[in-house]
Amino acid sequence: MIALSQQQTFELRCDYGSRRLDQVELLALIDQCEQNYYSKESDRLSYLTELGEKLYYWLDGKEGWLRKSL
After folding, report:
1. Tell me: the pLDDT tens digits for 12-22?
2. In whole angstroms, what is the distance from residue 67 CA to residue 70 CA?
């Protein structure tokens, strides 16, 4: 879950703990998703794959939370 903390920063929380998220990086990923996810061009598949990988590694973080849960 991504939550806005009382200090107006974003945190990612899961069973393994929580960590603060870089707001600039989060907003850039959201912007990329909004601009490109709904495109109907067939050549976007490779871009969406790349975006999915970025999101995975970003969520996984140096702690490896996604790897642990998979």
Report:
1. 787 777 887 77
2. 5
